Amino acid sequence: MEGLGINTFAFLSQLVSFIIVLILLRKWALPTVQRMLDRRAAIIREGIENAERAREELKNATARAEQLLAEARREAQEVIANAQRAAEREARRIEEEALARARQIEQQQIEHIRQEAARARADLGRLVVNLSIAAASKVISKSVDSSDNRRLVEEFVNASQATKGQ
């Protein structure tokens, strides 16, 4: 080995030193390093599992949020439909109330017209009687006395009322 420029004693001493360091490292350092690497791997594995769980929880939370939104939309549609039905019922009630009030007013007006017509007929009857008396008194003024005059007018009025009733 001398021909290659290698000192055999130095080489052997370095080889023995290397083997001793290797044995010491293997006995004490390697297990410590291995435990540290195992812990590091466990932490990384746990981080990956946590990330997967978080991703799954996010997926579940998103699905739940979409479900809640769909349910809220459905409930909103139900509320709107109920409000529309209530508005339609109220509109029908108001319309029926207005129609009933209009019929009531119409009946009141018809009754008022009937009363006015009856009053006008009564006034007309009195006017006819007064005119008849005036005409009859001019025609018969001196030949019939007042009791005969009254009897004749009553007969005339009764006869005219009988013809009105037919």
TrEMBL record:
Q: Which residues form a coiled coil?
A: 41-123
What's the stated role of this polypeptide?
F(1)F(0) ATP synthase produces ATP from ADP in the presence of a proton or sodium gradient. F-type ATPases consist of two structural domains, F(1) containing the extramembraneous catalytic core and F(0) containing the membrane proton channel, linked together by a central stalk and a peripheral stalk. During catalysis, ATP synthesis in the catalytic domain of F(1) is coupled via a rotary mechanism of the central stalk subunits to proton translocation.
Spans traversing the lipid bilayer: 6-25
Keyword DNA-binding carried by entry = no
Q: What keyword terms does UniProt attach to this protein?
A: ATP synthesis, Cell membrane, CF(0), Coiled coil, Hydrogen ion transport, Ion transport, Membrane, Transmembrane, Transmembrane helix, Transport
List the subcellular locations: Cell membrane; Endomembrane system
Flavoprotein as a keyword of this entry, yes or no, is no
Q: Please provide, in alphabetical order, the Gene Ontology terms of the cellular component aspect for this entry.
A: endomembrane system; plasma membrane; proton-transporting ATP synthase complex
Tell me the GO molecular function terms.
Answer: proton-transporting ATP synthase activity, rotational mechanism; proton-transporting ATPase activity, rotational mechanism
| Database matches in InterPro entries | ATP_synth_b/b'su_bac/chlpt (IPR002146), ATP_synth_F0_bsu_bac (IPR005864), ATP_synthase_B_chain (IPR050059)
Q: What is this protein called?
A: ATP synthase subunit b
Q: How does it sit in the membrane?
A: Single-pass membrane protein
Query: Which coarse location class describes where this protein primarily resides?
Result: membrane
Assembly and partners are described as: F-type ATPases have 2 components, F(1) - the catalytic core - and F(0) - the membrane proton channel. F(1) has five subunits: alpha(3), beta(3), gamma(1), delta(1), epsilon(1). F(0) has three main subunits: a(1), b(2) and c(10-14). The alpha and beta chains form an alternating ring which encloses part of the gamma chain. F(1) is attached to F(0) by a central stalk formed by the gamma and epsilon chains, while a peripheral stalk is formed by the delta and b chains.
Q: Kindly give the Pfam families that the UniProt entry links to this protein.
A: ATP-synt_B
Q: Can you tell me which family this protein belongs to? A: Belongs to the ATPase B chain family.
